[in-house]
Amino acid sequence: AQSVTQLDSQVPVFEEAPVELRCNYSSSVSVYLFWYVQYPNQGLQLLLKYLSGSTLVKGINGFEAEFNKSQTSFHLRKPSVHISDTAEYFCAVSEDSWGKLQFGAGTQVVVTP
Amino acid sequence: DAGVTQSPTHLIKTRGQQVTLRCSPKSGHDTVSWYQQALGQGPQFIFQYYEEEERQRGNFPDRFSGHQFPNYSSELNVNALLLGDSALYLCASSFGSLNTGELFFGEGSRLTVL
Predict the structure, then answer these.
(1) Which among A20, A3, A27, A11 is positioned nearest to A104, based on CA atoms?
(2) Three-class SS of residue A61?
(3) Shortest CB distance from B92 goes to which of A4, A94, A99?
(4) Whole-number mean pLDDT of chain A?
(5) Are residues B98 and A49 in contact, defined by beta-carbon separation less than 8 angstroms?
(6) Are B104 and B92 in contact (CB under 8 A)?
C-alpha cells in the first residue's frame, strides 16, 4: 500500500527567503506525484505534478519540485517566498491516473516580513 | 466559468443522524471524487463516481454512500453519524485521466457532529 510522509508539520520562513518542503512516499509501483496548496477556508489548488519524463517539474507561482526515484522523494522548493505563500501544502501520490490520491498530513508554511 | 461548487458550506448534526452533501462539477467534467479532511490532517479518498457508477472506493465503511446523476453532479450520504465524522468534505471533479487533466477541488462542506 502506498503512503506519503511530509517530514515537517510547520515551516516558518522570512519573506524573500527560499523554502523547501519535504515529501517522501512509499509504493510498490510507479506513481504519479502532486503538490497542492490550501489557503484558509478554501479547497485545494494544484501547484504541480509529476507524471513521467523530466524529474524537475515547474509549477505555478514560482514553485518547482524534483522527483528522486531512488530516494522516493518529491521535495517542493521556491527560491523566494512572498507573504501570500502562507498556506498549507500537501504532497499526494496516486498509483493510477483516475484521481485516487493519497495525501500527506500537510506542511503549514508561515511567511513573516 | 463556475468551478466546483458544494453545498451546504457548513452544517451541524447530532450523532445518529444522516447527512447529504452535494457537489456540482466544473463545466465539462464527468468524474467526481469525494475526500474527507479531518482537522489538521490531509484529505482521505472516500470514493469516485464516473458514468453514474462508483469506480473506486477508499477505506470507508458502508455508512458512506454516494450517487452521481446524469448531469454529473453528485451526492455524498453519511448515515448513523459519529463524532469522528466531523470534518471538511471536499469534492473534486475531473475529465479524463490525470495524464491530460487535473483534479479541481471545491471549497468543501464543513460537517460538525455533536
Answers:
(1) A3
(2) helix
(3) A99
(4) 93
(5) yes
(6) yes
Report the alpha-carbon distance of residue B30 to residue B21 in Å, rounded.
18
* Confidence (pLDDT) at B33: 96
Q: Which of B27, B6, B39, B33 is nearest to B112 (CA)?
A: B39
Nearest chain A CA: its distance from B84 CA (Å) = 17
Q: Which residues of B touch A104 (CB under 8 A)?
A: 42
Nearest CA in chain A to B96: A98
Q: How far apart are CA A50 and CA A32, in angstroms?
A: 6
Could you report the per-residue pLDDT of A61-71, keeping only the tens digit for each?
Answer: 999 999 999 99
The answer to whether A48 and B113 are in contact (CB under 8 A) is: no
Upstream peptide bond of B8 is cis (omega within 30 degrees of 0): yes
Whether the pLDDT of residue B99 is over 80: the answer is: no
- Residues of chain A with C-beta less than 8 angstroms from the C-beta of B38: none
Tens digits of per-residue pLDDT, B4-52?
999 999 999 999 999 999 999 999 999 999 999 999 899 999 999 999 9
Model confidence at A96, pLDDT cuts 50, 70, 90, reads: confident
Determine, for residues A99 and B94 on separate chains, whether the beta-carbon distance falls below 8 Å: yes
- Contact status of B98 with chain A (Cβ, < 8 Å): yes
Task: Please judge whether A90 and B105 are an interchain contact, meaning their C-beta atoms are less than 8 angstroms apart.
Answer: no
